[in-house]
């Protein structure tokens, strides 16, 4: 597996993974991914044998960064792909010396454990954050690494 910058040509595959993983909510479209890339956000993909198997995105401002998405094809979950994607995002935030914020479904124990293991803390709860399912989300944050 390799982690590399996400390409515009990956947007359709990203949308396909979204449909598979998040059918009860509002999965991102190909156009949404293209917009994220065109707006200068930091996106990486995980590739295995030339196939996109996961992706992650980070928005950066002058003061903070926020994880926009992390997703891994269900066939590859549990094998460290999500961890590698998260570490790529955190490395970029650390380069900029920025804190990182995110929202995560309260029922996504695997993701919550991953974030806690990488220095995130629970900051709050957003009721009915994910639509249309109405699932709640934790807001989590990690301080800037200014080494």
Automatic annotation (TrEMBL):
It is found in: Cytoplasm. It catalyses: N-terminal L-alanyl-[ribosomal protein bS18] + acetyl-CoA = N-terminal N(alpha)-acetyl-L-alanyl-[ribosomal protein bS18] + CoA + H(+). One of its GO terms (molecular function) is protein-N-terminal-alanine acetyltransferase activity. Pfam families: Acetyltransf_1 (PF00583). One of its GO terms (cellular component) is cytoplasm. Residues 1-145 form the N-acetyltransferase domain. It comes from the Bacteria. This is [Ribosomal protein bS18]-alanine N-acetyltransferase. The lineage of its organism: Bacteria, Bacillati, Actinomycetota, Actinomycetes, Pseudonocardiales.
